[in-house]
Amino acid sequence: MQNEQVDPLLLRTHCAFFVSTSEATMRLLVVDDNARMRALMIGVLRRSLTGLGEVYECGEGGEAVGMYRERHPDWTLMDVQMPGMDGLEAARHIRAVCPEARIIMVSQYGDPAYRDEAAQIGVVAYVLKEDVGDIPAIILQNTPEVHQI
Which of 22, 47, 48, 66 has a CA between 20 and 30 Å from the CA of residue 30? Predict the structure, then answer.
């Protein structure tokens, strides 16, 4: 894990949690260094959920922290291993200043150490990439105002 520094005060000044309503749409941030994996996750969610609005994408953890600050997504799907700042470190930065941030870690690694670290950070779930089809159910369970198609 690389320790890139993100100014927590800068992030905190821009932290505003968006709560979806039946009239609003859910904003999603998808973070993975593999563009095909990002497209797959977005496709699964678009086919499975109503209320999915803007989707933001980036391929690196440091970029994700900045995008979170700018866009305030309702949900973030975050890969664990990426170049630059990894997903666990990015999730730690985001949750340190926005404890209500809803993050799902998505990884090809089922390593218990990664799962434990993600749980300590306070992410909603840790999903293996082979199980991305489970992500809509996780979002539905944790976002009552979003409905399944």
Answer: 22
